[in-house]
């Protein structure tokens, strides 16, 4: 593998004493933050990177065993923070990366002043009294569709996840980054993400968490955001936005960007 910086296409831009790390979810790359970045660079130093497996990374670097659990992505994040000598950061993670940040913060809480968790879920599958939104049968069909005809699956999956029609800019953008992934890597990542269960570790989180959630999200029901707040060990707050879809920073930037900036700038208020 090349250097950490090259392997993950790490970019450090902006100015300021505080560091904001932006981490993307499945099927996207760092471009998913394109509407947010211009609002941060005058005030913060911003670190962007691509998760291994994104279409912008070298597929030869993708280790199927390493990324069969979220720990592989956690090690990558910690390596990037070490490489750039980050002592403390505000971490903004979307979907997959929100849980990556959660895990990293448990072992290295000093590296994170707060976590901003966008469209986050500790468990996508329904399980007893827990409602994650998906049944095992749904996942079996999803994995089979990825394997049988990846391009057709992408075409159907993108508008469902973004909650828009194929002509929308956000759906076209997500389709582009999804298509860029190698199909076998996309399947591997989907199996890792949609089957993980992080509920048992939430109580160990001590870093303040800002949970940002769309009112309607096919992948993450609103009750999951409430579950997170109730079960995270440290201080947490839920910000519900009048948006639809799993990638609101891409599909509804006019609503989402001010919300994200507000949570980046402001800490959780102490109860009166």
TrEMBL record:
Annotated transmembrane regions:
none
Coiled-coil regions listed: none
Which InterPro entries does this entry report, sorted A to Z?
Answer: AB_hydrolase_1 (IPR000073), AB_hydrolase_fold (IPR029058)
Q: Does the keyword Phosphoprotein apply?
A: no
**Keywords in UniProt for this one?**
Hydrolase
Please provide, alphabetically and separated by semicolons, the GO molecular function terms listed in this UniProt record: hydrolase activity
Presence of keyword Hydrolase? yes
Q: Which family does it belong to?
A: Belongs to the AB hydrolase superfamily.
Write down what this protein is called: AB hydrolase-1 domain-containing protein
